[in-house]
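Example 378, ligand FNR.
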Amino acid sequence: NEIYLQGYGGTTPAFTTDATRLEESAADLLEPGPFWYVAGAAGSGATARANRAAFDHWRIVPRMLTDATERDLSTTVLGTELPAPVLLAPVGVQSIVHPDGELATARAAAGLRLPMVLSTASSHSIEAVAEASGDGPRWFQLYWPNDPDVCGSILRRAKEAGYTALVVTLDTWTLGWRPADLDGAYLPFLNGDGLAVPFTDPAFRSLLEKTPEEDAPTAILRWISMVTGTDRNWSALPFLREHWDGPILLKGIQHVDDARRAVDAGMDGIIVSNHGGRQVDGAVAALDMLPEIATAVGERATVLFDSGVRTGADVLKALALGARAVLVGRPYVYGLAHGGEDGVRHVLRGLLADFDLTMGLSGHRTVTELDSTVLRRV
Ligand code: FNR
């Protein structure tokens, strides 16, 4: 209603409300390096495309006369109350697309009471982002540092700064082959003075200070090697429990046996995700694995989903297929690029409004009503 009313007054939204056009307009707005850092995917992009295509294989079957005028989309996820089942996926180095980076994202998320999952690779410190998010819900994502002391220190700081749940990303123990990103290598790290290292977190600064500023590429590689390069096995998980007393979720689960194993190991939740198609090109669409995984472990643990969510219908479908909530990645980052905090808010409010309308018009008043019977596979 707000958008229509403003339109009658001659004011249209600052930028598009359409998720596809949003990416196109970000391509016009951003330099190629920053744009491809966000838009890029692994290899040929087959998995990134499959993530989107998978949603098309499911269609909503709307119901009529269900008294859906008033809707309550709220839910609770591992102790965090959400006005709608949407979280902000962890996205690293957000100052690449806007100087306010994660601070702007945190403010927008807090205003909407949606949890922001802060990336280990944040361009602003854990504490500064916590301050920007005020009393808003916040979770922390871990890229598991090779050094246990660094890891323990990061987790301690996150806990002290009020992040409640821990998301441990398993699918990126080393970076995937991302041609578009490689073609623009280091461009995202350019600023007006030449190369600049965008990480302000003390854990990174202390490493980077060992490297002369003029040799920023070496510094960046040094940072990357701090949190990548080491794959682990299931026996490593107790370390996390010892260093984190809140809920823990494993992100990047794609096989039903891994989901079972995570839950058997005492994890509180999993995120069915292929990192937005950025890691294994040719990997199965994340949505295609969701029903089987949710059926296997949904009763025992919290199942979240990301990779390809763009519209309200996508949110509805993921929930109907067993997700408790979804995370959204690239779209809000494009919002950030377009307008900082306001831009993130515009994108998220659009997604929430679209989801709300889609729920109502398909005859649903609460998210608990959603299961696979509301969809038809085509
Ligand atoms: C990511 N993602 C990510 N995940 C993570 O655990 N830590 C991180 O630092 C990042 N960084 C990151 C940067 C950029 C630019 C993108 C696009 C993605 C993955 C992210 O959390 C999420 O899994 C995907 O973005 C979901 O897919 P969509 O919504 O972008 O299709």
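Summary: The two ends are 33 Å apart (CA to CA).
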